[in-house]
Design a protein that fits this description.
Number of strands: 2
Shape: globular
Strand order of the largest sheet: 1-2
Distance between the termini: 25 Å
Radius of gyration: 18 Å
Order of helices and strands: HHEEHHHHHHHH
Largest sheet: 2 strands, antiparallel
Helix content: over 70%
C-alpha cells in the first residue's frame, strides 16, 4: 500500500505535465486544472505516505530495469521518515506554486507550457526524494536542471532572462559533471547503484577513495543548491516568474 501510493506521488504530476504539453495549444482551458489537480492530489498522497511510513524501519522496493552486462540499473524506491517528510514538503510547495500561478500568470499566453514545466519539475523533485537507485536519481536531477533552464528563461524575449537561463544551465552542469563521475565510482566499487547496497559497501570499507568520491558528489550538490563557488546563477534566476523562484529555492533544499 505504501509503495503503491509512493509511486503515484511523482507519477501524477508527470502525467499532468504530459497532458499539459499535449493540450496546451489545442485546449488551453484545461491547462489550469491539469496543473493544479494532479499536483494537489500528489501532495495529499505524499502526506498519506508520510503517515503510513512514520518513523519505522525503511521501506524498499524495486525491479530490474535492464541488464547492463556490468552494474545493473533498478527502478527502486526507498522510503524512510526523512524522505517521506521531504516529499510532503515538496508537494505542499509545488501545489502552492501552481495555485498562485493561476492568478499571477492569468494573462500570460505561455501559461500552459509554464504550468506543464512546473509539473514536470515537481515530478522530478519527488523522484529524487523517493528513489532508491542513484542512476534514477540522476535522471530526476537532470530533468530538474532542464526545467530550470526553461522556467528561468520564460520571458525569453528579454536579453536578461535569456542570459540568466543559460548561466543557470551552464553553472549547474559544471557541478553535475563531477557528480556523474562520483555516481559511477560508487556504482563500480559497490557493484550496484542501489543506495542501500552502496551504504552497505561503504560500511564494509569496499568504497575506494571515499574522500574523492564525496568531493565529486559535493560538487554536484553545490551546483544544484547554489553553494560557493557555484552560487552565482541563483540571483540571476530570479528573472523567471516569481512563483518559479519559490520552486527553485525548494529544489535547492532537496
Amino acid at each position: 500500500m505504501t509503495v503503491t501510493l509512493a509511486i503515484l506521488v511523482p507519477l501524477l504530476p508527470f502525467l499532468g505535465s504530459a497532458a499539459g504539453f499535449l493540450l496546451g495549444r489545442t485546449a488551453p482551458g484545461y491547462a489550469r486544472p491539469l496543473a493544479v489537480l494532479p499536483t494537489a492530489c500528489s501532495a495529499v498522497l505524499a502526506f498519506a505516505v508520510l503517515a503510513l511510513q512514520g518513523t519505522g524501519p525503511g521501506t524498499d522496493a524495486g525491479m530490474r530495469l535492464t541488464p547492463t552486462g556490468s552494474v545493473p540499473v533498478d527502478l527502486a524506491i526507498h522510503l524512510d521518515g526523512f524522505s517521506t517528510l521531504t516529499g510532503a514538503l515538496v508537494g505542499v510547495v509545488a501545489c502552492a506554486v501552481q495555485i498562485y500561478s493561476t492568478g499571477y500568470l492569468r494573462d500570460d499566453p505561455r501559461y500552459p507550457s509554464y504550468a506543464a514545466l512546473v509539473s514536470l519539475f515537481t515530478a522530478a523533485m519527488l523522484l529524487v526524494v523517493y528513489t532508491g537507485d542513484l542512476l534514477v536519481l540522476l535522471v530526476g536531477w537532470e530533468i530538474m536542471g532542464i526545467c530550470s533552464y526553461f522556467l528561468v528563461g520564460h520571458y525569453w524575449e528579454t536579453e536578461v532572462a535569456r542570459s540568466a537561463s543559460i548561466k543557470a544551465f551552464l553553472v549547474t552542469k559544471l557541478g553535475d559533471i563531477p557528480f556523474l563521475f562520483g555516481i559511477f565510482a560508487l556504482g563500480l566499487d559497490a557493484g550496484t547503484f542501489r543506495i542501500n547496497g552502496i551504504l552497505t559497501a561503504a560500511v564494509a570499507g569496499d568504497i575506494q577513495h571515499p574522500t574523492v568520491v564525496c568531493l565529486l558528489l559535493l560538487a554536484g550538490v553545490a551546483g544544484k543548491s547554489a553553494q560557493f563557488p557555484l552560487h552565482t546563477w541563483l540571483p540571476d534566476a530570479m528573472e523567471g516568474p516569481t512563483p518559479v523562484s519559490a520552486l527553485i529555492h525548494a529544489a535547492t533544499m532537496v
